[in-house]
Design goal:
Elements: H1 3-10, E1 16-19, E2 31-33, E3 37-42, E4 48-49, E5 60-65, E6 72-77, E7 84-86, E8 89-90, E9 95-96, E10 102-105, E11 109-114, H2 116-122, H3 131-141, H4 152-175, E12 179-186, E13 199-206, E14 212-216, H5 217-235, E15 257-265, H6 267-270, E16 275-282, E17 288-299, E18 325-335, E19 341-348, E20 357-358, E21 362-364, E22 369-378, H7 383-391, E23 393-402, H8 416-429, H9 442-471
Helix pairs in contact: 3-4, 4-5
Length: 472
């Protein structure tokens, strides 16, 4: 009888671990039988040898005690830094194992614990765990479980991305690359769109400087492929270090980054009214990080604003249909942005344009004047454009570059693993906060603007009525 045949025969009655793989046909290919006593797991001098990122020489152990009715199985880490997840949750203490529990050793070695005797005694009829199920448990612990908007393919893509990010972080820790990766959800507005689905991106954060970059999914996956090649050279003791321009763990200092978005309702133009407003600039997490001062100014075809005597106010936007409409959009200044940003500019794309409009660059956050203006003309104003002005919002995106802190590294005496561990301890001890929204509520912004336009309308009507009464 061959070794494989013996293992397959023993699996029916012997407690064991079997692997889970993204490819369902490869799940269950690897099997490790558990013997009474201690079963040490790691990549060197252990009963069960596993290889992969974040796997320690002595990583964990499963203690099998033969007792009624179906045995006792305890799992525990053999080193404080060992990464061990049980059913998606990190384990820091000794835990009891039960039939069909899911165990992640390190960041890639995903296994199922099987106890045939427990199944027989309890007469359990539980579906066998799948790779997707196990990864979604891990995603839930990371706060990424609420993705009911995704179809099955997109959900699978998210699972794969979660695993890829875990592997990249493990390689960063082992090679002390001093960066950390995590998944962020970018709303359509954060990507310069007025509608669409939230998309998964990856944030790379430099733990020394605190600077961060948001990468599209494919860019991260391309970088991860290069990270794996570097990691293999590192493990084999070869010359693995690369110049910054080739290093997949670095980003060029001159790389432009998305800072935030302001949402400008254009409804005042549908009433042929001027509007001067200070708009909040919100980042991809919907946090206010600055203010953008903007003016919408109806004008004639030469760009001259209308005087009070030339008031073109209309009670009903439909009155503007098939007439020429000219207006100027002025972006006066930007203020309140965090000091790490430099070389900032604002860009936007009007309804009918194919290319973006871009302001001049301001060198740092202390120089806030933009004085950027452009005239637009609709000749004549169509029903489609009027609908856009009445209900739409113009997305004003703020872009720029980052500069590292003047005092250099934030954690000079710590390595990557220590820095990440310190951050986790701070997060664990912090009071829970309200969850941060990942999208900008355009409807809310538009509603606030409607109130502003209504106030302007009433003021203009009162002014008109006062003039009439004075003439009488």
């Amino acid at each position: 009888m061959s070794g494989l045949t013996e293992i397959n025969a023993a699996k029916t009655s012997t407690p064991h671990l079997y692997n889970l793989n993204m490819d369902a046909q490869l799940s269950g290919i690897v099997c490790h039988l558990l013997h009474p006593g201690e079963n040490k797991i790691g990549h060197k001098d252990c009963d069960i040898i596993l290889q992969g990122p974040s796997l320690l020489e002595q990583h964990a152990k499963i203690t099998f005690t033969e007792q009624e009715p179906f045995g006792s199985f305890l799992i525990e880490k053999l080193h404080p830094d060992a990464r061990l997840l049980l059913n998606g949750d990190p384990e820091t203490e000794v835990a009891e194992l039960h039939h069909y529990d899911r165990i992640m050793f390190g960041t890639t070695q995903l296994y199922v614990f099987v106890n045939p005797n427990e199944k027989k005694v309890l007469q359990q009829d539980i579906p066998a765990p799948t790779h997707e199920m196990a990864q979604m448990e891990i995603a839930a612990h990371a706060g990424l479980e609420d993705r009911g908007d995704l179809d099955q393919n997109s959900q699978q893509g998210l699972i794969e991305l979660i695993q890829a990010v875990e592997e990249a972080n493990s390689m960063s820790e082992e090679m002390d690359r001093r960066v950390k990766f995590d998944i962020v959800m970018l709303s359509p507005q954060a990507r310069g769109l007025t509608a669409g689905q939230t998309e998964d991106h990856v944030r790379m954060r430099n733990l020394d400087s605190g600077l961060e970059w948001i990468w599209p999914r494919q860019k991260f996956l391309n970088r991860k492929f290069a990270m794996q090649e570097m990691f293999e050279d590192f493990k084999e003791g070869e010359n693995w270090q690369l110049p910054d321009e080739q290093d997949p763990f670095t980003e060029t200092p001159d790389a432009e980054v998305y800072i935030g978005t302001s949402n400008l309702s254009l409804e005042s133009l549908a009433y042929h009214m001027a509007l001067e407003i200070a708009l909040n600039i919100t980042d991809y997490r919907d946090r206010k990080i600055g203010v953008l001062n903007v003016t919408l100014l109806p004008c004639n075809e030469n760009g001259s604003p209308y005087t009070v005597e030339q008031d073109k106010f209309v009670d009903d936007p439909a009155d503007l249909l098939n007439q020429d409409l000219h207006f100027t959009l002025k972006i006066a200044s930007i203020s309140g942005l965090p000091p790490q940003y430099a070389d900032m500019y604002v860009q936007y794309t009007m309804f009918f344009e194919n290319e973006s409009n871009r302001s001049a660059v301001i060198s740092d956050t202390s120089a806030s004047e933009l004085n950027f203006s452009k005239q637009f003309s609709f000749m004549p104003l169509t029903k489609e454009v009027l609908e856009y002005l009445s209900t739409g919002a113009l997305l004003l995106q703020v872009w720029g570059k980052q500069r590292p802190p003047k005092d250099g590294s934030l954690h000079k005496s710590k390595n990557t693993k220590q820095m990440i561990k310190s951050e986790l301890m701070v997060l664990a001890s912090a009071a829970p906060n309200e969850p941060i929204k990942k999208t900008v509520d355009i409807a809310k912004v538009t509603s606030q603007m409607k109130m502003h336009v209504t106030e302007k309308k009433l003021a203009r009507l009162e002014e008109k009525n006062g003039t009439v009464q004075k003439d009488d």
